[in-house]
Design brief:
Length: about 170
């Protein structure tokens, strides 16, 4: 990510130390699972007027009240919600297996972290909430479009605490 191309004031660009967690997590997860679709916003089919039916993964930073015991100029600590959406048939099994593959891949990444230019690298990961099936949007983050999920769509949600090393600028 080249933030100099964003047409921001020079004082803002000079002060930036960390980039959005969603940008880093999307790059990492897309690299680890190139055959899955990852988004930071829920894909919506405007022509059909319905929520995309999956499979896809929604990645969002969650609010956190954690205490930082490190220099936050160099490490970003975040809780990240990873929501897997799949459609029947076998949606329940598919959601559980995709969630497990993501968990496993994140833990392997910490042992051999890759640097993502302009985004950083994964320093630590801990599962804060295991992946469980959610029957509706009650625990979803972001804009809620439906009280219930569309028929046949299953959502699995897990929350991870991640530490991300800051990107190297220049």
């Amino acid at each position: 990510m080249d933030i100099s191309s964003l047409n921001l004031p020079a004082s803002v660009i000079a002060a930036v130390e960390l980039t959005p967690v969603e940008d880093f997590m999307l790059a990492l997860l897309r690299d680890l699972h190139p055959d899955l679709l990852f988004f930071s916003l829920i894909p919506f089919d405007q022509a059909e007027g319905v929520l995309a039916t999956g499979p896809f993964v929604l990645v969002r930073r969650e609010p956190s009240m954690s205490s930082m015991n490190f220099d936050e100029r160099f490490i970003d600590l975040a809780n990240v919600s990873i929501q897997v959406f799949v459609k029947d048939p076998e949606a329940d099994l598919k959601g559980a297996l995709i969630s497990e593959a993501i968990r496993s891949s994140l833990h392997k990444e910490v042992r051999r972290p890759k640097y993502y230019p302009g985004l950083g690298s994964l320093s630590s990961v801990r599962r804060a909430e295991e992946a469980v099936r959610k029957t509706d949007w009650a625990s979803g983050t972001g804009p809620v479009q439906f009280a219930d999920l569309p028929t046949g769509l299953v959502r699995y949600e897990a929350v991870y605490s991640v530490q991300i090393r800051r990107p190297l600028w220049g």
